[in-house]
Specification:
Length: about 290
């Protein structure tokens, strides 16, 4: 028998939840019920600067007001840094990562000098591989000396270690699953661990999905392209790949994506304005209770 469905809602505590988060949380809960499974809450707080405890507490309060149930303890990524470091070190020991000493500004400057500079699916300049050819002993010495660095995947080596075709199972509620092709190479030598923490979103999320036994990932279309990189990391780390559903995004009145950085109205503000949770649920296409 297959394992019962297990989904997760995984916000970052770097701002207040808005209507887009509400839609995703409600959809996760609805699909978990439909599949006869359960929903877990994960707090993705790997960012030591922007993640704040009071915002993590606010997430719990917002979900309780919205009526989103979850089971089991809340998983906080900040409590699992040693696990991410072990995964990073394993990839590095296999020759699949290399330290990069280039700053974002330097990469942007190089890209600006080339009108045809390739970009990743998020629109950022693809890393040109400046540090990929550094002498390994010299690079290790710089790391040991405390030089600021990230760890990047050597995409060429990674694809030779885990050759394609790559893909994943996608599902829509009430419909048959389908196979979706993935192209990890379009991310180039992506950052897998950051300067200040031993992980990135990509490494932490594939590790946690496996550690928690997540069977179905329901998240926004803005993360659909990242799945290409995630399925490669799953192959390299020997982890299972969940099924994925990437839902449409809730838009602002100007058609833009709701985002904390854009100052989108927070659920707490709606609550303070007297908006009832039931009314919000209905406006997002879910039952009032």
């Amino acid at each position: 028998m297959s394992a019962p469905a297990h989904l997760r809602f995984a916000p970052s505590p770097n701002g207040r939840l808005h209507r887009g988060h509400a839609y995703s949380a409600l959809l996760n809960a609805a699909i978990a019920r439909q599949l006869g499974g359960r929903l877990s809450l994960r707090i993705e707080d790997i960012d030591p600067v922007r993640s704040r405890p009071e915002l993590a507490a606010a997430i719990v309060a917002d979900l309780a007001w919205l009526g989103v149930p979850w089971s089991g303890p809340v998983r906080r990524q900040s409590e699992h840094m040693a696990d991410y470091a072990a995964a990073r070190d394993g990839l590095a020991a296999a020759g699949l990562l290399y330290p990069c000493f280039c700053s974002r500004g330097e990469i942007r400057e190089r890209a600006a000098a080339r009108a045809d500079a390739p970009r990743d699916p998020d629109g950022a300049p693809l890393y040109p591989g400046t540090c990929r050819g550094l002498d390994p002993a010299a690079a290790r010495a710089r790391v040991a000396a405390g030089a600021a660095h990230t760890w990047r995947i050597d995409m060429g080596r990674a694809l030779r270690r885990a050759p394609g075709p790559h893909g994943y199972a996608a599902f829509d509620p009430g419909s048959a699953e389908r196979r979706v092709g993935a192209d990890p190479a379009r991310w180039g030598d992506a950052v897998i661990a950051r300067r200040d923490v031993p992980t990135s979103y990509h490494l932490a999320v594939v590790h946690d999905d496996a550690a928690q036994g997540i069977t179905h990932v329901v998240r926004g279309q803005d993360l659909e392209a990242a799945t290409d990189l995630h399925v490669l990391l799953q192959r390299l780390l020997g982890l299972p790949s969940p099924r994925y559903h990437h839902h449409g995004l809730i838009r602002d009145t100007d058609g833009g994506k709701l985002a904390k950085s854009r100052g989108s109205t927070a659920l707490a503000d709606l609550r303070a304005q007297g908006v009832a949770a039931a009314a919000l649920r209905v406006s997002l296409g879910f039952p009032a209770a």
